[in-house]
Amino acid sequence: MQKKIRNICCIGAGYVGGPTMAVIAKYCEDIQVNVVDISIERIKEWNNPDTSKIPIYEPGLSEIIESVRGKNLHFSTDLEENISSADMIFISVNTPTKTKGKGSGKASDLKWVEASARQIAKFSKGQTIVVEKSTLPVKTAQTIKEILESYKYLDTNSPRTFEVLSNPEFLAEGSAINDLENPDRVLIGGNCKKAITCLEEIYLNWVSKEKIIKTNLWSSELSKLTANAFLSQRISSINSISALCEATGADIKEVSKAVGMDRRIGNKFLNSGPGFGGSCFKKDILNLIYICDHYGLKETSSYWEKVIEINDWQQKRIIDVVLDKLFGTITGKTIAILGFAFKANTNDTRESPAIKICEELIIEGAKLKIFDPKVNEIDIENCLYQLKSSPKSVIQSSFEVSNSISNAISDCDGIIVVTDWIQFSEINWVNHIASVRLPCWIFDTRSIINSKLAKESGFKIWTLGSSS
Ligand code: UDX
Ligand code: UDX
User: Fold this and answer.
1) How far is CA 277 from CA 13, 282, 433, in A?
2) Does the global pTM surpass 0.85?
3) Among 116, 36, 119, which Cα is nearest to 76's?
4) What is the three-class DSSP state of 49?
5) Residue 190's pLDDT is what?
6) Does the beta carbon of 346 sit less than 6 angstroms from any atom of ligand 1?
7) Quick check: 17 and 43 in contact, CB under 8 A?
8) What 3-state class would DSSP assign to 240?
9) How far apart are CA 12 and CA 6, in angstroms?
10) What is the dihedral of CA 297, 302, 304, 310, to 10 degrees?
11) Which residue's CA lies nearest to atom 32 of ligand 1?
12) Which residues have a Cβ under 8 Å from the Cβ of 203 and sit 6 or more positions away?
């Protein structure tokens, strides 16, 4: 199997599939890239003539869509046509944690991956390279292969062959385009050298050869899970020390800087905060735990369990501080929530720490005013309405979505900075002190506000990881 790739299909037009295919289309003008999705609504949004309204906010993405959409990048719901014309098919569907049955709460639910494999098996023609883009448990390639192989001889008039590759995506949301255009490495796992070369040739259009690593399938799948586990472990490590800083008088920013300047440790991913969110970290660690348990590696799985425990604890202890500072009760008090996305520069709210924080505040009887520069009202409502800890009517009457920082802050007793949006570091607190109820506390969980100015303006400040 070695041929020139002319037609790519990607199943799944999400946070990974969309930006990844846009960048491939940008650098490979002679390849037609077709992104398909079962969601008619999502595809409609990707095809919106106004590229500022595409479903994903990601710096630099709209510009690429503007330049390649309709030329060699297309968004469609027609799976059959796009699969049958593809030489290479990326599977980029979501793989949520199972909510019932065996492995519930830990294992990844692979039903969408399996469904994609069946569709490929049914509609593909000739030689097809199938690429796992989604983060998947080790050995998923085997499942995909078995499904593909079982359909292989169905239509004897058009013999078909499949090769499965693992090519996990390491992009982080908010910096997806930069990560895709300047990756630290590209990882291709597989058993067929020719298929690997076909995929490598695509990346060589903009990535240098030294950065392309080739491994066996299982190493590739496990490397992605391990990378996410290590990154989350760093966050839990620094967050655990942030509590110690508050207790002792050390300052987490100073400690992070001093520790990170050791080149063996490095200075990235050492920002303490309200715990990691996003669609990957928690899911992937849970998955790792599940796999370790499956292989009887109890010590390994309990080691990784701790990373999640610290993350949950970090959010809980922020709520405890809020309660403590607001005289032990927040019933009927108004709290401004600044930021709802799980991190800055994205409109993604999956596993956002803001959700847990809002949930606990609602249980305590607070009224919330939520502002995020990019997350829309419907997404915030959807996140909060699915909480089970309070009746829907209570949730409904416990929050409102504000259209500006000023609106969110006015009349409040406390302000929690949850997301690290740059706008929040630029707030001129002098302008807001007259509109709040005094004493008004700012809880800066990201250590980003101008706390000197806020203090001078009359606010009371709690900064995560600092005792002052
Ligand atoms: C990411 C990563 O790809 C994956 O590694 C991780 O495991 C979960 O999250 P992401 O792109 O962020 O995926 O997910 P999402 O934005 O939910 O997009 C998935 C898309 O696949 C959705 O648009 C969904 O409609 C689509 N889909 C799902 C299909 O087109 N077909 C299916 O059968 C199932
Ligand atoms: C992550 C991985 O970085 C990426 O390689 C993988 O492909 C998908 O999962 P993502 O979840 O998009 O990417 O964002 P990331 O920047 O890793 O942030 C994850 C969470 O950790 C966010 O909630 C962020 O606020 C938090 N974080 C990150 C910290 O609290 N402190 C840090 O120092 C860094």
Assistant:
1) 21, 7, 31
2) yes
3) 36
4) coil
5) 96
6) no
7) no
8) helix
9) 19
10) 180
11) 112
12) 186, 212
Structure tokens at 116: 């994609």
User: Residue 321 is which amino acid?
Assistant: V
pLDDT of residue 96: 87
Place of tokens 């790739």: 5
Structure tokens at 143: 């499942």
| Block mean pLDDT (10 aa), the chain, length 468 | 84 97 98 98 97 94 98 98 97 91 87 94 93 88 90 72 95 97 98 96 98 96 95 98 97 98 97 97 94 96 98 97 97 98 96 98 98 97 96 97 98 98 98 97 98 97 93
Ligand nearest to the CA of 113: 1
CA separation for the pair 284, 226 (Å, rounded): 8
For every residue of 200-237, DSSP letters joined together read: HHHHTTTS-GGGEEEE-HHHHHHHHHHHHHHHHHHHHH
- The answer, yes or no, to whether any atom of ligand 1 lies below 6 A from the CB of 12, is yes
Per-residue model confidence (pLDDT) at position 135 = 86
Residue 183 beta carbon below 6 angstroms from any ligand 2 atom: no
- Cβ 15 under 6 angstroms from ligand 1: yes
> What is the pLDDT at residue 156?
59
SS3 category, 415: strand
> Quick one: tokens of 128?
């097809």
Spell out the domains of the chain, with CATH numbers in brackets: 7-215 (3.40.50.720), 217-468 (3.40.50.720)
Mapping DSSP onto H, E and C, the string for 299-365 reads: HHHHHHHHHHHHHHHHHHHHHHHHHHHCCCCCCCCEEEEECCCCCCCCCCCCCCHHHHHHHHHHHCC
Closest CA to 432 of 447, 450, 417, 454: 454
Classify burial at 385, counting beta carbons within 10 Å of its beta carbon; exposed 0-12, middle 13-18, buried 19 or more.
exposed
Pocket test for ligand 1, best of 80, 94, 120, 132 (most atoms within 8 A of CB): 94
Task: Please give the positions annotated as active site.
Answer: 280
Spatial separation of the C-alpha atoms in residues 321 and 307, rounded to whole Å: 22
Instruction: Tell me the CA–centroid distance for residue 114 and ligand 1, in Å.
Output: 13
> Which listed ligand is nearest to 14 at the C-alpha?
1
Phi/psi for 386 (5° steps) reads -85, 0
What's at 228, amino acid-wise? N
- Indicate whether residue 242 lines ligand 2 (CB < 6 A): no
